[in-house]
Write the structure tokens for this entry.
Amino acid sequence: MNKSLCRISGEPLTEVLDLGSQPLGNGFLAKDEFQKEYSYRMAMGFCDTSKMFQLIEQPTPEQMFHENYAFYSSTSSYMEQHFLEFADYVKGSQYLSRNDPFVVELGCNDGIMLKNFSSEGIRHLGIEPSRNVAEVANTKGVRTLSEFFCESVAEKIVREEGRADAFLAANVMCHIPDMNGVVKGIRTMLKPTGVVMFEDPYLGDVIEKTSYDQIYDEHVFLFSAHSVQYMFGLQGMELIDVLPQKTHGGSMRYVLAHIGAYTVNDSVVRLLQKEKAIGLDRLETFENFRRNVEQSRSDLVKLLREIKSKGKRIAGYGATSKSTTILNYCNIGPDLIEYISDTTPIKQGKFTPGMHIPVKPYDAFQKNPPDYAVLFAWNHAEEIMAKEKAFMGAGGQWIVHVPKVQVF
Ligand code: DWN
């Protein structure tokens, strides 16, 4: 497909934001890999037909999701709680049949959500292309297939196990370039009364908070109710409910079903109206967003340079995929940020993609705390603030860029 066409409607895209040359968001690497590091031009386009805000160019799924995938969902206790509640919501909903319900999750990662179904003996299946995290799920008793989901995989599952009552996905759908193929697969997988429930970072929050770090190679789409309605509408499905979530700095849970299977909740109508009011369906909104992103970059770089010029030490907290976007777009390297602390073993001892800042274990932060810490995992702020009282008590200060660049 021509790269400047919308992946959903096939209509031309208008480029609205260029975040420059970027490496893989989760491409943490060793020193001897610097020379052959991959990069691409990361720019976003808007389609006036589908209303989809999307990457113009994206690395292949195989480059991003493989046996060394660096992100494990169960690194946050708050997220564990979130998925327990998501699972309870599904189990308590009207959508699961009483007799032998079947729940499928796309991109189940290390089983953080499905373990809440497997522990109760509910028939389930995870589909997870990154083999290392899929293995962790299997060892937790979560039945997981390591595959990229598509219509033929859906047909095979239906032949062998029947259709699903609920098809779940959390922080997954926005990663999939062949969305039309996947939505066809989902439609194939669902019973006539089946539903798909998925959540992803919400475009409305990204625009409102200038959280442009939600844009990176893996996030090919940033969804709104408008774009979700359009893409599922192409396959005979409709939005029946929307539920805002606090996770990842503001997400939306979308519930969709075959057209006419359920009454459409008022929440859908209200959200569509709100999106029109704030302009999520219009090009000008994205042009304004671009100006805010540029301002955020100059504010952050100015602040870091000022702090450094006073001889203070700055580290990063959380080597997130999001941080890759900020560091590379703002050209922030080890001259400004000494190291980034992260609890994920696979990232430790490596260097951040593109800017090559050392990633150190959490111990480094505790034993040798900086004067300032850039909170790259700002979406986990509540959890992190609760456990970093010692850092703050000793005079340590945080820097965030969302919703605006500030020190606290
Ligand atoms: O969509 C995606 C989201 C859900 O997760 C993926 N494409 C990749 C990943 O994105 P991310 O890396 O931006 O996600 P997080 O959840 O913001 O990453 C948090 C990082 O911070 C992890 O590497 C773990 C680390 N961490 C830490 O060092 N100390 C996290 C917490 C809560 C902590 O206390």
